[in-house]
């Protein structure tokens, strides 16, 4: 029984095998936690200024094109120069923009245009950091430990989103936006420690200078890599139609009640699911058919998002609602059920992410890994931004509960169709990785 229990828990060998990976993981986790404070605080501040859900959704949408450009170019930089230096320089830009946001807020000079502009800078710089950092990981640990490293990434993301949004909601409610941004600035210094102590990590193989030829080289590889293409399409589908995050401020204000606290709880619920699935990821790391695992995980994700839409529909009908529901009272019963559905979605998304990340890092050659990681970051981060536009625009013309309800149905149907059309993806074997 003891042996069975150990096998079900997360594999910690990447942390003990590679001190460099351990430092990078710790630094990224702490800085990411601070980053979540700013993400949630910016959404709440934008809603406080405009009282407009669409304006909140445009925070993510405005950064989409710069993020795509930065992700692609960052991947090219990571395949041409020392990946440690690339990540350090991009992290410095993120630090400076967050510091400016704190200064503007403390001085009372913030407005919606500053929030948009600095959010754009942050998303672009973070894309470069993530592309370089993801390309670094396979050089720090053995290939057989990549699934465990991806699961540790789920633990990291879970801690960030689980504690960050809830803490942001409390900080904004108790001490205001200035302190929230300032704490992020302080926590971001840990990322520099994790990156600074890394060895020099230059790409292996033929180096192509950043530019059009480098982009064409990456595109030629992607045309041959059908498994990588399908996982991109599956993830874009899930993130476009299954990301109700930008609706949370309005849901907390006018539908479920509880205001900023409800926004933090709902956002954190996704991370609780991701954290739990990573904590018990032992069996996940032993699965060989990663394509099939991605398909099943994303279908569960879609079902959970659909169920969350049904919960919001029940709230719109007034089920279990206190008589004085408003900003400072809450429909506790439906918040709890909605949080459970979001936790399930977070767990399913994290299982999919473990398989997708492992496939990317093991099936793609090192010489082109930065560029593919850049595209991967664009897909992972760009999908939710398109999803923010989908959710915000559709909620504006219909109701808050309709985008997740329709989105869940679309996800389950499209993903099942995509994978059925690509049997090679479903048959992917982790012991013989092929892009």
Automatic annotation (TrEMBL):
One Pfam family named in its UniProt record: MFS_3
Superkingdom of origin organism: Bacteria
InterPro entries noted in UniProt: MFS_dom, MFS_trans_sf, TM_effector
Subcellular compartments: Cell inner membrane
Spans through the membrane: 21-48, 54-73, 85-107, 145-173, 232-255, 261-285, 297-320, 332-355, 375-395, 401-419
Major facilitator superfamily (MFS) profile domain residues: 183-435
Keywords for the protein's UniProt record, in alphabetical order: Cell membrane, Membrane, Transmembrane, Transmembrane helix, Transport
Main location: membrane
Membrane topology: Multi-pass membrane protein
Name the UniProt record assigns to this protein: MFS transporter
UniProt source species: Microbacterium horticulturae
């Amino acid at each position: 029984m003891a042996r069975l229990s150990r096998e079900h828990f997360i594999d910690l060998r990447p942390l003990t095998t590679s001190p460099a990976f351990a430092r990078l993981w710790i630094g990224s986790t702490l800085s990411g936690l601070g980053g979540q404070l700013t993400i949630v605080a910016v959404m709440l501040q934008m809603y406080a200024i405009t009282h407009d859900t669409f304006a909140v959704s445009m925070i993510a949408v405005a950064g989409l094109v710069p993020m795509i450009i930065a992700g692609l170019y960052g991947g090219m930089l990571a395949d041409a120069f020392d990946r440690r230096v690339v990540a350090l320089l991009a992290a410095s830009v993120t630090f400076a923009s967050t510091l400016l946001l704190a200064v503007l807020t403390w001085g009372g000079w913030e407005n919606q245009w500053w929030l948009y502009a600095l959010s754009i800078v942050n998303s672009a710089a973070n894309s470069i950091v993530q592309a370089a950092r993801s390309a670094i990981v396979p050089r720090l640990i053995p290939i057989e430990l990549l699934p465990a490293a991806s699961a540790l990434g789920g633990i990291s993301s879970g801690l960030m989103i689980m504690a960050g949004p809830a803490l942001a909601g409390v900080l904004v409610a108790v001490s205001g936006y200035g302190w929230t941004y300032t704490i992020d600035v302080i926590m971001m210094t840990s990322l520099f420690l994790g990156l600074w102590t890394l060895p020099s990590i230059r790409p292996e193989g033929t180096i192509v200078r950043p530019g059009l030829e480098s982009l064409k080289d990456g595109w030629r590889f992607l045309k041959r890599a059908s498994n990588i293409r399908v996982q991109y399409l599956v993830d874009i589908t899930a993130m476009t139609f299954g990301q109700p995050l930008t609706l949370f401020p309005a849901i907390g204000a006018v539908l479920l009640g509880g205001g900023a606290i409800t926004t933090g709880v709902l956002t954190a619920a996704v991370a609780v699911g991701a954290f739990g699935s990573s904590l018990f990821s032992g069996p996940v790391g032993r699965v060989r058919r990663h394509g099939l695992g991605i398909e099943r995980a994303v279908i569960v994700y879609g079902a959970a998002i659909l169920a969350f839409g049904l919960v919001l529909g029940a709230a719109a009908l007034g089920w279990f609602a206190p008589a004085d529901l408003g900003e400072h009272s809450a429909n506790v019963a439906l918040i709890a059920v909605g949080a459970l559905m979001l936790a399930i979605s977070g767990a399913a998304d994290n299982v999919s992410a473990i398989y997708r990340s492992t496939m990317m890092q093991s099936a793609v050659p090192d010489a082109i890994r930065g560029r593919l990681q850049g595209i991967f970051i664009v897909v992972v981060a760009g999908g939710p931004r398109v999803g923010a536009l989908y959710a915000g625009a559709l909620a504006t013309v219909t109701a808050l509960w309709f985008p997740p309800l329709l989105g869940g149905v679309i996800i389950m149907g499209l993903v099942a169709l995509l994978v059925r059309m690509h049997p090679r993806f479903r048959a992917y074997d982790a012991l013989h990785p092929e892009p």
